[in-house]
Amino acid sequence: MGAQLRLLRRRIKSVKSTAKITRAQELIASSRIVKAQQRMQAAVPYEQEITRAVSGVVSNTASVDHPLTVEKEKPTTAGVLIVTSDSGFCGGFNANILREAEALRGLLEERGIRAVPFVVGRKGVTWHTFRSRTMGGRWEGFSRRPSYADAKTIADTLIESFKEENGIDEIHIVSTEFVSMLTQNVVVKRVLPLEVVESEAESSDTIPPYFEFEPNAAEVLDSLLPRYVESRIFNALLQSAASEEASRRRAMKSATDNANELIRVFTMQMNQARQAEITQEISEIVGGANALADAAAGKE
Amino acid sequence: MAKLRVGVVSPEREIWSGEADMVIAKTVDGEIGIMPEHAPVLGVLVEGGVLRVKRGGESDLVAAVHGGFISVANNDVSILAEAAELGSEVDVAAARDALQRAQSSIEAGQEDADIRLAAKRARARLRAAGEEV
């Protein structure tokens, strides 16, 4: 009896300390989401402008003939940039991404294309090394606070490999899109070769401006397209960082709730056990006293 | 007279936006001055350039702009910089320090693209802050 009580007390104590940790993680994550969202918002103007500039150039030059926009006739290899997180404790975040990446890999292989993973985030890197898959590139340590320089390094590696004769022919990004605090979706996007599409149909009364180029269209395009790719990757990193924190907050919240529920159940069991013990002790005392009284009565 | 709507943005944040009478930037072809009703232009900016935004009545806005683009259309001027800093935000001591370090390593003979770039950037930051270089 006493043993069961002690056992329950010990479990409650341990669950309580776990709940404290998960609660703290939850609070940290919620404050980080706000920051991550702010960073996302701060990057919006640049992205809009660069998209406008790219579509401006594209709509001006009759034929866009740039290595980064030309689609190879027979693509044989594709680079897949997989954006995962560095730390765990974030529910199904990484599992979802990696599942989607595997699906993409299957799709590409059906088309006869070899997929080369380029992985961001420690979790994704471990996943790939555990399965001894060769990676085209790996980056760790900035999943929570990606800087533009990080995006640039990634883009440089990818573009480098894209331009090589035997390098990759396509670049896809698998990352998590931050829709709201509650919704994050895994999305797969193709970045290169660039799909030349006009950004949201402009109202018909504005004529698209006829740009002059300094120094000339080819050179502008030359430096504009890599920047565009960088900005796409940077955007993916930022969204993924915000999503990571959001799913961490959710996971930690449900962990805290579970812990509290466990504590409630254990406390009830503990009270029951304690009551049972007390009742038994009383009945033992009463029984003992009765027996003594009976014995005394029998003597007289 | 019509005014220009100017936005200076870097990938990580919007640095400045507002109205102006004239914008002077340095492209790879040389300096370019933009006034209202300018024809649409898309230019590549140099590393370590200084951007000057003239505003009527107020003092000029000066910023160090490292790489990027200038795009002009319908009196909208946007400066897309890879990195940019307003003159008033420049840490002069740090920039001087960076310049000195870069110069001394150039003098020591180890001259490569990175160091030259660092020197250029430091110079632009100092010029933007209104210091003599």
TrEMBL record, chain B:
Protein location: Cell membrane
Classification via Pfam families: ATP-synt_DE_N
SUPFAM superfamilies to which the protein is assigned, alphabetical: Epsilon subunit of F1F0-ATP synthase N-terminal domain (SSF51344)
InterPro entries cross-referenced by the UniProt entry: ATP_synth_F1_dsu/esu (IPR001469), ATP_synth_F1_dsu/esu_N (IPR020546), ATPsynth_dsu/esu_N (IPR036771)
Domain ATP synthase F1 complex delta/epsilon subunit N-terminal: 4-84
Topology in membrane: Peripheral membrane protein
The entry's keywords: ATP synthesis, Cell membrane, CF(1), Hydrogen ion transport, Ion transport, Membrane, Transport
CDD domains: F1-ATPase_delta (cd12152)
HAMAP family reported for this sequence: ATP_synth_epsil_bac (MF_00530)
NCBIfam families, per database record: ATP_synt_epsi, PRK13442.1
Self-association and partners: F-type ATPases have 2 components, CF(1) - the catalytic core - and CF(0) - the membrane proton channel. CF(1) has five subunits: alpha(3), beta(3), gamma(1), delta(1), epsilon(1). CF(0) has three main subunits: a, b and c.
Function, as annotated: Produces ATP from ADP in the presence of a proton gradient across the membrane.
PANTHER family from the UniProt entry: ATP SYNTHASE DELTA/EPSILON CHAIN (PTHR13822), ATP SYNTHASE EPSILON CHAIN, CHLOROPLASTIC (PTHR13822:SF10)
Family stated for the protein in its record: Belongs to the ATPase epsilon chain family.
The protein's name: ATP synthase epsilon chain
Gene source species: Microtetraspora malaysiensis
